[in-house]
Every structure is written in structure tokens, then in C-alpha cells.
């Protein structure tokens, strides 16, 4: 296999630091060469779910879900707790049998692939590892099922920053180290598709950034990446496309920018000592103006340019004019407001706080 080693990041890596190296590099990637990658990965949908359904007794965890996940993109899989994300991911890789519908990876059910580790790399539960084994032996045992040897095992260990702990028992690993090992296992077969369920769970900020850069890099090679996370700000930086599940159904399936623009309201904040005059000037049926305080207005229905030009034409002084765009988090909250099954009520929080203070007395 052609090995390509590239430096794609120059941030201080905490683990390099721990080894005493004043190293600035930090992320090397071992995989196919760039030339090979474009030929290796096509542009056809890689994961295709059709009316995919899973019931556990009377509980419908996944309810007739259809979507495609395309190569060359990071697709974020979002949804409140219990929405059905993990169940869907498990069905994609054959760990759960659908009650109805179907899902294929590269045109086949996962179980029908001759060498699935080379097709799909999966991180579903980082703790599902033999606790008495070392990271190295765990990866070696996994690789042995596909004829993958020690060289590739060492590559993925280095790639995930686990070199200094590779011979240590997994049972002693922190949550973040376990996540890194799960990502190493997912990358072992150099797969064209990666399915990562909450890969940044438990990682420190450096680790979170590393996962972001890793998956963006893998997608840039034409690989398919499906990942779930509850960290909306991180997902906004990482994903190109988003699928939102709620109570087992697809609530939205769109590129990130489209999802934000269609599910949030853009507005303009104008600050002026003549705020009242601006409000009178701009009032119309299509414009909503809210007074935030005596000098600040929030205007929906006009662009910042239109507000600025109208104010200039009327000789009105503006101290601030800011276009406000919705975030992915705003879009997500708006989309899932009716689909949150496990909600904390403010009254319950107050009661808990009271109980705590009583206990501490
Ligand atoms: N083995 C099972 N037996 C019974 N119910 C299950 C089982 N696995 C999942 N469920 C139920 O199916 C629903 C979907 O669960 P799932 O874990 O897929 O949600 P999720 O979106 O991944 O949630 P989270 O964000 O909390 O991980 C939940 O109501 C869950 O309790």
C-alpha cells in the first residue's frame, strides 16, 4: 500500500508535551496517497436507509426513516436523547436487525460485505473493549480478523496519539483515551466510510479539535463520515450536512447553512440615540421591530444595508448596526422543540436546589 505521511496541523499536542518534546507538529496521517484517494472513493450515496424501522416491544425507536449519506462530506447526526441515533447507527452496521425497511452501505447490507472493516469503521461504544487487554493487543486482535498486521496497528496508534499508553491495560484508560482507542479501531481497516457515535464525548479541547480536523480531512479525501454529537457549536464547525432525528423520525435533512437559514430568523440590531425615529421610519407590515432598551432595536424583515441606508437618508445617527444570524443550536432547538422526550422542568431544578441546600445545612 502507498503510505502517505502529511503534516496537517501544527498545534502543540498535549501528549507530545507530556513526553517532553517541544514539538510543534502534531498530527500525521497515514493513509492512501492523495492520488489514490480520488479514485478510491466515488460520489454515489454510500449509506442508504429506506423506511428503516426498529421497534423494541411497544417502543418505536426508529420510525420509517429514509436518508442517504454521501461521500466527501461530514454528515452530522443530531437529535435529543432517545431520538434513535444510536439505534440507526447500530442497524447500519448490522448490530440491530431492522423491524422494517432496509439500510445498505456501498450497495450491500453490512453483513454481506466480505471484509467489513475495510468498508466501514465504527465507533459506537468506546467502552466495549476487553478491559484486561492492552490497546495494542486489542487492535492486533481486531486486525487479525482481516489480515491487518502490526504495521497498521502501530500507524493507527500513532495517528490517535496513543503511543505512550499502547501497552497499558485498557481498563485503566480515561474516557478520552478510550475514545481515541475507539477511533484507532475505526481507522484500522482504512475504510471508505466512518460511523462515529459521539466521538468527542470525554475528550479535552485539544482532542475535540483533533477529531474535528481528522474527520474534515478524511471527508476531504472523499470518504464518507457520519457522526453524532450533542455539541452543537462543534457540529457547526465540523459538519457539512445535517440529519436531525426526533422521536425516531427525520425532522430535517439539509446542508448546515440551509438548515440554519430555514429554521432560524435573521435580524438586525441597531443602536442609536434616535431609536424611536428609526422605529417610526421603518415600520411597515413586513417589518417587525422590537425595542430591546431605549437605544437598541431588533429589526426582522430588513437587511442591515437597508436599515443603514434608510437611517442615512433621514440623517439619523447610528452607533451600531449588526446583522444577527441564527446558529445551528438555534435551528436545532427550533426543530426539536416538540421532540424532546426527557426534559428538565425549571420547577424540578428549583426543588432539587432546595433539597441540596437543605442537605448542606
Ligand atoms: N435494546 C433496547 N431495548 C429497549 N429499548 C431500547 C433499546 N435500545 C434503545 N432503546 C430505546 O430506543 C430509543 C432510542 O434510543 P437510542 O439509543 O437510539 O437514542 P439516541 O438518539 O442514540 O439517544 P442518546 O442521544 O441519548 O444516545 C430510546 O427510547 C431507547 O430507550
From TrEMBL:
Coiled-coil annotated spans: none
ATP-binding recorded as keyword: yes
InterPro entries attached to this UniProt entry: AAA+_ATPase (IPR003593), ABC_transporter-like_ATP-bd (IPR003439), P-loop_NTPase (IPR027417)
Keyword Nucleotide-binding assigned: yes
Keyword entries, A-Z: ATP-binding, Nucleotide-binding, Transport
GO MF annotation list: ATP binding
SMART domains in the record: AAA
Domain ABC transporter residue range list: 47-272
Recorded family membership: Belongs to the ABC transporter superfamily.
Alphabetical list of PANTHER family matching this protein: ABC TRANSPORTER, ATP-BINDING PROTEIN
UniProt name for this protein: ABC-2 type transport system ATP-binding protein
Amino acid at each position: 500500500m502507498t503510505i502517505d505521511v502529511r503534516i496537517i496541523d501544527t498545534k502543540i499536542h498535549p501528549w507530545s508535551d507530556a513526553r517532553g518534546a517541544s514539538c510543534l507538529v502534531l498530527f500525521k496521517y497515514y493513509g492512501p496517497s492523495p492520488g489514490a484517494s480520488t479514485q478510491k472513493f466515488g460520489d454515489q450515496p454510500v449509506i442508504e436507509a429506506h423506511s428503516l424501522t426498529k421497534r423494541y416491544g411497544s417502543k418505536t425507536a426508529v420510525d420509517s426513516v429514509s436518508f442517504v449519506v454521501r461521500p466527501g462530506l461530514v454528515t452530522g447526526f443530531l437529535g435529543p436523547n432517545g431520538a434513535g441515533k444510536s439505534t440507526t447507527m447500530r442497524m447500519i452496521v448490522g448490530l440491530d436487525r431492522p423491524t422494517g425497511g432496509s439500510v445498505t452501505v456501498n450497495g450491500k447490507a453490512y453483513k454481506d460485505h466480505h471484509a467489513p472493516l475495510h468498508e466501514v469503521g465504527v465507533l459506537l461504544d468506546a467502552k466495549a473493549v476487553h478491559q484486561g487487554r492492552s490497546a495494542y493487543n486489542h487492535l492486533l486482535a481486531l486486525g487479525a480478523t482481516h489480515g491487518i498486521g502490526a504495521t497498521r496497528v502501530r500507524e493507527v496508534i500513532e495517528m490517535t496519539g496513543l503511543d505512550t499508553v499502547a501497552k497499558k491495560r485498557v481498563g485503566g484508560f480515561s474516557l478520552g483515551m478510550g475514545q481515541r482507542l475507539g477511533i484507532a479501531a475505526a481507522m484500522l481497516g482504512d475504510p471508505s466510510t466512518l460511523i462515529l457515535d459521539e466521538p468527542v464525548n470525554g475528550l479535552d479541547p485539544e482532542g475535540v479539535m483533533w477529531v474535528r480536523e481528522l474527520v474534515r480531512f478524511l471527508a476531504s479525501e472523499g470518504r464518507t463520515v457520519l457522526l453524532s454529537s450533542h455539541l452543537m457549536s462543534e457540529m457547526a464547525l465540523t459538519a457539512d450536512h445535517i440529519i436531525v432525528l426526533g422521536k425516531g423520525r427525520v425532522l430535517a435533512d439539509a446542508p448546515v447553512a440551509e438548515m440554519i437559514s430555514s429554521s432560524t430568523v435573521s435580524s438586525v440590531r441597531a443602536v442609536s440615540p434616535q431609536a424611536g425615529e428609526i422605529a417610526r421610519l421603518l415600520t411597515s407590515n413586513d417589518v417587525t421591530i422590537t425595542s430591546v432598551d431605549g437605544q437598541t432595536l431588533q429589526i426582522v424583515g430588513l437587511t442591515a444595508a437597508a436599515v443603514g441606508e434608510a437611517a442615512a437618508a433621514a440623517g439619523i445617527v447610528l452607533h451600531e448596526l449588526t446583522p444577527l444570524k441564527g446558529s445551528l443550536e438555534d435551528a436545532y432547538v427550533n426543530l426539536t422543540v416538540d421532540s424532546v422526550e426527557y426534559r428538565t422542568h425549571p420547577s424540578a431544578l428549583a426543588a432539587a436546589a432546595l433539597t441540596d441546600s437543605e442537605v448542606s445545612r
